Amino acid sequence: MPDVTHSTYSLPKNIILYGSPGTGKTYRTVQYAVAIVENKPLAEIETEEYGDVVRRYREYKDKGRICFITFHQSYEYEEFIEGLRPRLADEDGANEGELSYEIHEGVFKAFCRDAETVPVTEQAQGLELAPNPTVWKISLERTGDNPTRRECLDNGHIRIGWDGYGPNLSEQTEYKDGGRAALDAFYNRMQPGDIVLSCYSHKVVDAVGVVTGEPEWHDEYGSYKRLRKVRWLAKDIRENIYHRNGDKVLTLSTLYKLSIPVAEILAMIGMGEPAGQPAHQEQQNFVFIIDEINRGNMAKIFGELMTLIEESKRLGAKEEKRVHLPYSGDSFGVPGNVYIIGTMNTADRSIALMDAALRRRFSFVEIPPEPKLLEGTMVEGIHIDRLLDLFNRRIEALLDRDHVLGHAAFLGLKENADMAALAAIMKNAVLPLLQEYFYNDYEKIRLVLGDNQKTQSDDVKFIDELEEGVELFGPHADADGTRYSIDLKAFENPVAYRYLGLDNGAGEDAAPADEH
């Protein structure tokens, strides 16, 4: 295994852990992820109790510092980066009940956005921002100067209308005058700790605030009676956000979500630093784990990220690169504090078949079987570490090293070293894999299991070779009557394992299992 026990400062940003089934790739991603998040040497994490590492891994996952997904054959760019999602009613309430589409943020884009929000100055530390705040655009009555805008800025809140529906909205509310989407956002989707931008014109905002309260109804106002308290961070400004908003103008819709990173908003008002720039506080590492990475169409899923994930193209690097995404038009780049870890089952698809453009952007770390983890584990005198090593050497000789057996299937024997447990592993894990690897070529399976060397009675053979040509077809030159029968009881017979040649050869003269 390559030496990767150094600090995360020198770990590649894109890593693939590859190996055959059961070698502990997912197990290892937990250690890698915690080492990266905590900025510790991998070797230090490996020496810790695994249960404690898993506990911290789950805590970081709950906080959004680690994300875990699994690729599959139908996984698409729209799930990973962004796409269109159907919904009823337009944002401004027009055409109520009709099908419309909204841009949906994919899991990796959202993860990168969250990673970008971390580097802020000390001035912004007490803002009571949510862990992953959403950025909202709101129109206070209308564009330009107006009484509602002035009152909101002076008194620390935002207000919207559709007062005719009354103070209490429910599933029975009929939105005859529109506003369904805006009211849903105001009451259900907007949360304390989110950022809100007051729209002054189609390109300009005049105020930035943090939402601090839940929705309220204030009957003392003649109109715009729905209110949420806001802590204004900047007021009476005139900031053009056209380019920050992906070269898109602000629409007439009252309230909707923007895709501008919080770090850029804070930088705009002097409370943060531009995305990718060093912060006054230590930048936190984020880890995005893709299990079974080679099972998806990677070129299709990654799209333009094929270039953006390169270390030299990350935000803050010398060759920093952003692209305008096809659906939203957002300017998007991959932050330098985002690490990508993929796992790859070599029995599913060879590394050689992986898209070449993506393959050269990842560092590959082989996770091989480790029979040494089974040292000292014995069942009826059978050395399990030697058994696994022998099976794998035979598989590698007959097939390749991508299809060897992992040690994980046998680890349970360390706590439960009895014959029934070993038989269950052989019947339910080892044999099905061999049938898959060798496409039911039972002659090769018999070679792996050592049945070809057995000369005693059939009751010690895992797979019996039956010659039934004449019986099945009668005398005929082309009639091959060879048939194979799996003897499940043999897996429970310790004698059957004595002929695997684990020490001094095979065959009926081999030493009994308890002498190995």
Topology:
Layout: E1 14-19, H1 25-37, H2 42-46, H3 50-62, E2 66-70, H4 77-80, E3 82-88, E4 99-105, H5 107-116, E5 135-138, H6 147-155, E6 157-160, H7 180-189, E7 195-199, E8 204-211, E9 216-217, E10 226-240, E11 255-258, H8 262-268, E12 286-291, H9 298-302, H10 305-308, E13 323-324, E14 331-332, E15 338-345, H11 356-359, E16 363-366, E17 378-379, E18 382-383, H12 384-398, H13 419-437, H14 442-449, E19 463-467, H15 469-473, E20 482-486
Parallel strand pairs: 1-15, 1-16, 2-12, 5-7, 12-15
Antiparallel strand pairs: 3-4, 5-11, 6-10, 7-8, 8-10, 9-10, 13-14, 17-18, 19-20
Q: Would you write up a description of this structure?
A:
This protein has helices spanning 25-37, 42-46, 50-62, 77-80, 107-116, 147-155, 180-189, 262-268, 298-302, 305-308, 356-359, 384-398, 419-437, 442-449, 469-473; strands spanning 14-19, 66-70, 82-88, 99-105, 135-138, 157-160, 195-199, 204-211, 216-217, 226-240, 255-258, 286-291, 323-324, 331-332, 338-345, 363-366, 378-379, 382-383, 463-467, 482-486. With 516 residues, the protein is of the alpha/beta class. The strands form 6 sheets. Strands 5, 6, 7, 8, 9, 10 and 11 form a 7-stranded mixed sheet that branches. It has a 5-stranded parallel sheet with strand order 2-12-15-1-16. Strand 9 (216-217) and strand 10 form a beta hairpin. Helix 1 packs across helix 3 (50-62) and helix 12 runs antiparallel to helix 14. The longest helix is centred in the last third of the chain and has 19 residues, at 419-437. 37% of the residues are buried.
